Amino acid sequence: MARRPAKGGSTTGGTAGGSIARGSGVVLGEAVFRSLCEALQGGTYRAGDRLREEEVAQRLKVSRTPVREALGRLAARGFVEPAGGRGVVVRNLDISEVLELYAMREIMEGAAARLAAEHASKPEVDALSDIEQAFMQASGDAAEMARLNRAFHEAICRAARNRYLDNASRELQDWIALLGPTTFTVTGRPSTSHREHQAIIDAIAARDGDKAERLAREHIREALRCRLKLLQKQ
User: 1-91: what CATH class?
Assistant: First the structure.
């Protein structure tokens, strides 16, 4: 799900809790679609939540037509499915889908880290360190840590200088949003994640592509281990 603004335009007016900004240069149906994507990523909507056209339209202060279009796009991507009666429900991924998702994430994050080690500028490496510092300062706030974690991985993808990898990684993050509570609610995960992030930054700064890829893949495997812990509790 693309979240970048259209050329010459801007992003939508936030999550599904607020209205869509008019005059943004974005077609209304696209603006609603982006707003719903952001709501999924931000945890406004979670797996099992029902979305009804009329309710979404009221929240975003738009007609039902662009909402119907946006929900249709979400359904086509497999993020929602028809619910009994009216509306759709946010999908709940089964264990096989979770494993497939993390397998692909491991490949893509590893490739991004390797390419970033080859192409990242000094300011981009410094920006990664700044994000990581903010990540540690947010300790205790799992939602904020999850937001900064996304920012960290998105920054690595941008530094990789590969638009196709960047776009694919962004879509993968939208699937991650369907998994529910962040893994930063698992005891000890914030501190281990920080150490893993820092090691990746150091490898990128040292231009060691082999090490950066290996560390990034190990980082995602550890994230999967924590995700499976959370799923066992559900």
Answer: mainly alpha
What are the tens digits of pLDDT across the range 107-156? Answer: 999 999 999 999 999 999 999 999 999 999 999 899 899 999 999 999 99
Residue 109 to residue 15: CA distance in whole angstroms? 27
Kindly report, residue by residue over 50-68, the tens digit of the pLDDT: 999 999 999 999 999 999 9
Buried b (16+ CB within 10 A) or exposed e, 103-140: eebbebbbbbbbbbbebbeeebbebbeebbeebeebee
**Cβ partners under 8 Å of residue 133, min gap 6:** none
Q: How far is CA 105 from CA 17, 21, 101, in A?
A: 30, 33, 6
Q: Which CATH architecture has domain 95-233?
A: Up-down Bundle (1.20)
DSSP state of 140: T
